[in-house]
Write a structure and sequence with these properties.
globular, 5 helices, mainly alpha
């Protein structure tokens, strides 16, 4: 799971860049998934168990989740995959 979590943290670092212009709702959803990463990771896409869990979490906790993305270390940002529309 640690590799998957590291990949998710890199995604959060990418999402935090100004040029991405993620909406507050997108950032809240990303924070919600991070806060419940173990639970989300333990589910599968089969029989909609992952989407069902995320949907329940959104209904229960969305209003209380911050849209401020966590600070990501420089190492994670250096390993982040560039945005496909971003020019090097």
């Amino acid at each position: 799971m640690s590799n998957t979590y590291e990949q998710y943290r890199r995604f959060l670092g990418w999402l935090a860049h100004e040029h991405i212009r993620a909406t507050p709702d997108v950032r809240r959803t990303a924070n919600l998934v991070e806060a419940h990463f173990r639970e989300v990771h333990a589910t599968t896409s089969a029989a909609r168990s992952r989407s069902g869990l995320v949907s329940r979490l959104l209904q229960q906790e969305f209003a209380g989740i911050s849209d401020e993305l966590p600070a990501i270390t420089e190492q994670a940002e250096q390993n982040a995959v560039p945005c496909p529309t971003q020019k090097p």
